[in-house]
Amino acid sequence: MQPTIKSSAAKRLKIIEGHLKKVIKMVENGAYCPDVIQQSTAVQSALRKVDEILLEGHLKDCVRNAIKSSGGDKEIQELLEAFRKR
Fold this sequence. Notes:
By secondary structure, this protein is mainly α. The chain has a single domain, classed as Methane Monooxygenase Hydroxylase, Chain G, domain 1, CATH 1.20.58. Helix content is 88%, strand content 0%. It is built from three helices and no strands. It has helices at 3-28, 33-70, 73-84. Helix 1 (3-28) packs antiparallel against helix 2 and helix 2 runs antiparallel to helix 3 (73-84).
């Protein structure tokens, strides 16, 4: 993983972690359900953005190199399987 991708993803995940902790507190404190859902949706959206960053990095680095050296079939299959589980 490229250092810029790694640092960008890690930074976002730490922010998401803090946000998720706030959502947990909202649930524990009995916050208004639509407010909790709104915040939960924001966390899910942020996680999807991390997925996009990781996917882009993987495609530009690992998959590109694999295609040049061996066709990349294995790496493409791994990505397909990862996204099917979503």
